[in-house]
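Need tokens for this chain, all 251 residues.
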Amino acid sequence: MRSSLASIAALATLAALAPMGQAAHAAAPGDWRTAACAADNHDDLALGAYTVTQAKSHRVRQIRSLTLTAERLVFASGTRCDLLSVDGRVRGGHELTGHGSDMALMGELVVGGVSQGEMEGHSSQTGAGGTEPIRHARHRVLDAMVFRDVESGTVPDSAAVPEAWRNQPYTFTHTRTTFTATVTGRVARRKTFTVTPATTAAADRRLAAALAVADSTAERRAARKVHRLALRGVRVVMRKFRHDWSDELPR
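Here are the structure tokens for all 251 residues:
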């Protein structure tokens, strides 16, 4: 279970005082996983070669060509990195407009030989996107968290921690990582209507307006496709969606 806010705040103080690791290795060329973990490696823990020891995947219901993935990388040094990503191609007039994540490292805190139960050690929230569609979703990283399986040290003599904990040895042992991965976008739905001279004239006007502001061949092609459908009595409606995937990676 989650601990009290006071205990979480205290643990955050302990985490900041955890011993530093060795200098991080350079990311392998072209290795997107190593690059993502290296970007989050704020404590300069040793990286290098790794093994993917856990992996879970989940298809986005509204755009089935997109897959969300959670992975745990264990480096030869013992350093761990939990990674969230989205991968796939956006087809058929659908759009990916944003993504985000919420990750938390859970673990057992022991202070002075006494277990304080499971609590949140580190957490991270990310978000990206806007009004323009995200064109490329190939191995797009939502978040990465680098950590040790066990952290240890001495509780500082600080008012930020309970008095009984001060100057006591502690260990924080990772038990699981919880996460929620989110993607937002728009999906195309087709609706039919009766073609009349008025609807044809309106479609022609919309095509002319779209071509006047189009910045690329792809935009002009899309405008002409919408026009052709309108002449056949088909209207494309874009509907917004948000898809969340919540799960965890156990120790």
